Amino acid sequence: MAKVEVVPSRATHIGPIANRIRDIDRLECEAMGHSPKHALRQGFMLSDRCWTALVDGRPEAMFGSVTISAIDRRATVWMLGTDEVYRHGRVLRSWGPALLRRTVDSRWWAGNLVSSVNGKAIRLLQAWGFTVEPEEKMVGGVAFRQFWMIR
Could you tell me the pTM of the whole model? Predict the structure, then answer.
């Protein structure tokens, strides 16, 4: 059985994830005008807290929270990963609530956009307690849906 753990992110985690990123995550990055490596770097540098999921010691996903407004306590949450991380969906589902508490801590609102065809991510977001809106918004030629949570 694979060992899955979540650790504070390091810059050295970016390359291994970017080089093996899920096709749908690549599509989302490109629709937003970024390469996967650039999106991961930006997320790593701008996040108040950033975490990496390791599977048998190998970086497989990175996620974090970027403050939009400290006054309004709003944050953008994000996650990019490889196909391997979704092979351990039960672990991700079970860790979600605790990780969200640690990642968004005092934020009142947290959310972002997810590709409308990213079914695995949508199901994970819903399992973690996010509302995923049915309306679509086109960004870079890709249909996205907003997801959010009020704590």
Answer: 0.90
